Amino acid sequence: MSGLGTVLVNGRGFTLYVYLPDAQSSRSRCTGVCSAGWPPVAVPSGVSAAPTGGEARASLLGTTTRSGGVVQVTYNGWPLYTWTGDAQPGQATGQGIYNLGGLWYVISPDGNPVH
After folding, report:
1. CA angle, 104 as apex, 102 and 64 as ends, to 5°?
2. Which residues contact 49 (CB under 8 A, 6 or more apart)?
3. Taking Cα atoms as reference points, which of 109, 110, 106, 85 lies closest to residue 95?
4. Bridge partner list, 9
5. How far apart are CA 11 and CA 21, in angstroms?
6. What is the per-residue pLDDT for 89?
7. Average pLDDT across the chain, whole number
8. What's the CA angle centered on 36, arms 38 and 102, to 5 degrees?
9. Cα separation of 71 and 86, whole Å?
10. Cα angle at 108 between 92 and 58, to 5 degrees?
11. In order along the chain (115 residues), what is the average pLDDT of each group of 10 residues?
């Protein structure tokens, strides 16, 4: 991802994003139509903790329970999302866009949004 440095991706190589209105609160404010375009990164059914790999720090991983019971992965208190606009691994087409009431940014391994 040119110019962004090292950022977090999921197990399939798709970029992970944070939504600034979530305010590092470990609570997702992206629901309904928002979560259709920005799918929450969910812990697989039957798994009790978020998996880590690459440069992600296990100490920054956490979870939050969304309405409906889905367990969403958090990183440094930020709920994580993918973006349906990224058609293939390695893309970051959602970086810095204002969409559905807030700004979206990729997240670095140190747990901060990349502005």
Report:
1. 90
2. 43, 61, 63
3. 106
4. 15
5. 25
6. 95
7. 92
8. 45
9. 23
10. 125
11. 86 95 95 96 81 85 91 96 96 96 97 96
Provide the edge-to-edge strand list for the sheet that holds 102-106: 17-19, 102-106, 98-99
The conformation of residue 16, written as its DSSP 8-state character, comes to P
Query: Which of 32, 40, 52, 49 lies closest to 16 in space, CA to CA?
Result: 40
C-alpha 86/C-alpha 14 separation (Å) is 7
Give the pLDDT score at 2.
63
Q: What is the CA radius of gyration of the chain?
A: 13
Contact call for residues 46 and 36 (beta carbons, < 8 A) = no
Instruction: Scan for tokens 């690459």, then name that residue.
Output: 54
Task: Give me the amino acid identity at 112.
Answer: N
pLDDT in tens, 16-44: 999 999 999 999 999 999 999 999 999 98
**Residue corresponding to tokens 């305010």:** 23
Of 60, 66, 62, the residue nearest 30 (C-alpha): 66
